[in-house]
User: Which sequence fits this backbone?
């Protein structure tokens, strides 16, 4: 069984630093904004899940 909260490392699309984010895997399709822990700029995170597996994780700048 998949953990409902998973930690993931992503690269900030602004500063390029690796940061840790927590993913809520209880919702199969979601998009939300989380600020970078290094440069504080807003990162848009899109997450898709299927059959308890992450099928897509996309991070992008707010103005993309």
Assistant:
């Amino acid at each position: 069984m998949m953990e409902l909260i998973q930690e993931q490392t992503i690269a900030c699309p602004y500063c390029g630093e690796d940061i840790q984010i927590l993913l809520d895997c209880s919702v199969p399709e979601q998009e939300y904004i989380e600020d970078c822990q290094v440069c504080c700029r807003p990162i848009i995170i899109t997450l898709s899940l299927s059959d308890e597996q992450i099928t897509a994780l996309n991070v992008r700048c707010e103005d993309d």
User: Anything to note?
Assistant: The chain has a mean pLDDT of 94. The beta strands are 5-11, 18-24, 29-35, 42-50, 53-61. Residues 6 and 23 are 5 Å apart (CA to CA).
